[in-house]
DNA sequence: GATGAATGAGTGTTCATTCAT
DNA sequence: AATGAATGAACACTCATTCAT
């Protein structure tokens, strides 16, 4: 299917492809330096192309972000497959996945914000990206729930948002890394001490 | 304490005081409508004063925000006192307090962002405000820990940040309210199911 | 004449012809919606062709407009013939013709502007179109003048411009239709009251 | 009244006034060269001020135009008074006035367009300016009608629009001046030859 | 013949902050 | 103390036209 449509627009034109890739590289670097709210014009300038060219490839900031992030999909997908096979149990797999998502959402300063927005608007190009990850989260979550390793009243969307929130807490490069980790831990175990009459062992 | 420094500049001039209050009222309204990133110029205009006057009272956006929020301190302090006496146990008190903080940080759209920043920069006028609430959080947390109702490895700062994160997830008025509540719940209990040795009852 | 030059490049290629027609249809619709200053790129996009193809067929906006309008020539020519036979006198014929021209120039929002320009520059592809209509106007005018039904000091060009001006006054769809009609009436009879020798008393 | 409000905002600040005047001078020159659609940024740059300063004084193009034109009001008003006293009859006065309006609307290339728009939208700052002139037109028109020198079925608005249309026909500096005059003449007397054998019958 | 990528100056507008009045 | 004018870079985004493919 994808092939047939691709055959229609035969040549993606070598220079266009090159430009596109160059824009992505430049944006990656620029966003790393200035956060996701950095100037698109500045990216175009740094890439040595006209602003129009950037907008042709990526009609708006979110489209650019989406492309940037989907380039990292492979890594996340790889991580997912790895967790599926190597995790010692469903809870570890879910935990590992959520950590991976958190890292992913920390790619650029300010990234969690549009991602969160994308979970509710559905209009953003980021929405599809997010949706895919929520689905994966759901798979891990269900597995853990089936194994009795995760509470039954948890929704995948909420875990995804919790991961984003953790990225958000980590915030800028300067922020307290420990607090980010702490929120991740809270998300897993909560602050509440189980009122264990006998001996509830719980691993921090 | 604050009074003694104020005594230095004897009469704060009635009109200045009036202006200040009027700015605060206007800003309150404006931020409610447009979020915390709204235009300060617009606030000055709506308040019917010059931009310079606004900047005289509040040298920057965060100073304005800090004043705005500290006006709500009383409510939070009242809530704190209420929780201290009425909560049936330390865990409920802590939970109630965190919910109060979460609500407080939802006062304006986009408010969690500068608050989070204030927890790390220390330079922001908001830092003092935050610090006070972190201290209160610490009191509740310690009480709960002393009662064995909260895990010992939790830090007040992290709980405070978790509350902010919850506000952040709630986000704009449009956002999914359930997800906000879900993160609060996660923060309390985590998604992990305690490995029950007897018989795990689980409702699908 | 035009045919002989066309015979040079024998087959206009079926697809080229089809493209050309499709562009015209699309442009007709687009200009109706957005006025004559609408984006040519958008027209190409809507027509499903590349921008270059559009420019191959019509090197600039005015060339496109000219083709668009000459497609309506038939209607105007038909109207001309109709007026020649059916009008009860030369003045009515001229009046009918000017109204037809006015309607024609109202085809798209903003059309009168390039038409007026075309009457003076001669470089525009629209110039030919306009010239033809001015000639026809001249025929009707002369007939009326011969019949003593039109003043002798009137020029066809000026009547044509007056018709364009009337279209211009009608302006966008929103404009005051009555004023358009009023200008047409003024053009015919003027605001001046003929000095009546008897005694025309007229109360304002 | 105007004085009391003026006293409130005591100092229009000498530099502000100077800037404002300088902007107006620059805009006058720039619009003369490039027409009313010229770049506002370019005007700011040429005036040696920041774009923001221009926008502070004139929030949009039409506000700037309105100020520019109202500076010419005095001339028109003077002309009005002159016509009132010196015109040999009401018809000449009206004719002189319409010519004055036409000249006024020719001040810049492209000016008739926003003026016409202003007669229908009412939202434009130009609307007030236009309204004033329409009122004056009405005075001259009524006088002429009272004298039996103008047809009773004419509206002031339509005469005003006819004057604008005449300016529009004159168009750019390059345009055919004769055609402009011709439309003005048409507006006054029409193209129709009164079929007067003896007594002038004229159909409305 | 057709394509559509590239151009890049240009658009109007905003805004936090400073400083002359 | 209050004012509000000035700043001017920055913003996202557009579009007619060219030209390599």
From TrEMBL, chains A, B, C, D:
Record-annotated HTH tetR-type domain positions: 17-76
Keyword Protease: no
InterPro entries registered for this protein in UniProt: Homeodomain-like_sf, HTH-type_TetR-like_transc_reg, HTH_TetR, TetR_SbtR-like_C
PROSITE patterns referenced in this protein's UniProt entry, alphabetically: HTH_TETR_2
Transmembrane helix is among the record's keywords: no
Pfam family, one: TetR_N
Domain of life: Bacteria
Keyword terms, alphabetized: DNA-binding, Transcription, Transcription regulation
UniProt GO molecular function: DNA-binding transcription factor activity; transcription cis-regulatory region binding
Residues in the DNA-binding region annotation: 39-58
PANTHER family xref list: HTH-TYPE TRANSCRIPTIONAL REGULATOR BETI, HTH-TYPE TRANSCRIPTIONAL REGULATOR RUTR
Protein name as it appears in the record: TetR/AcrR family transcriptional regulator
Organism whose genome encodes this protein: Pseudoclavibacter terrae
Organism phylogeny: Bacteria, Bacillati, Actinomycetota, Actinomycetes, Micrococcales
């Amino acid at each position: 299917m994808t092939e047939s449509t691709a055959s229609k627009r035969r040549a993606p034109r070598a220079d266009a492809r090159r430009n596109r890739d160059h824009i992505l590289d430049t944006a990656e670097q620029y966003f790393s330096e200035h956060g996701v709210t950095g100037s698109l014009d500045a990216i175009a300038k740094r890439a040595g192309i006209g602003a129009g060219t950037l907008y042709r490839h990526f009609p708006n900031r979110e489209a650019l972000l989406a492309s940037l992030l989907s380039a990292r999909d492979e890594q996340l997908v790889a991580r997912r497959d790895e967790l599926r096979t190597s995790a010692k149990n469903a809870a570890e797999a879910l935990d590992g996945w959520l950590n991976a998502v958190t890292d992913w959402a920390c790619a650029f300063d300010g990234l969690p914000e549009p991602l969160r927005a994308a979970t509710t608007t559905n209009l953003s190009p980021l929405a599809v990206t997010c949706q895919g990850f929520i689905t994966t989260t759901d798979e891990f979550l269900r597995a853990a729930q089936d194994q009795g390793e995760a509470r039954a009243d948890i929704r995948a969307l909420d875990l995804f948002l919790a991961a984003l929130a953790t990225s958000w807490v980590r915030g800028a490069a300067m922020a307290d890394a420990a607090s980010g980790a702490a929120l991740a831990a809270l998300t897993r175990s909560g602050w509440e001490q189980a009122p264990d009459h006998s001996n509830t062992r719980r691993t921090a």
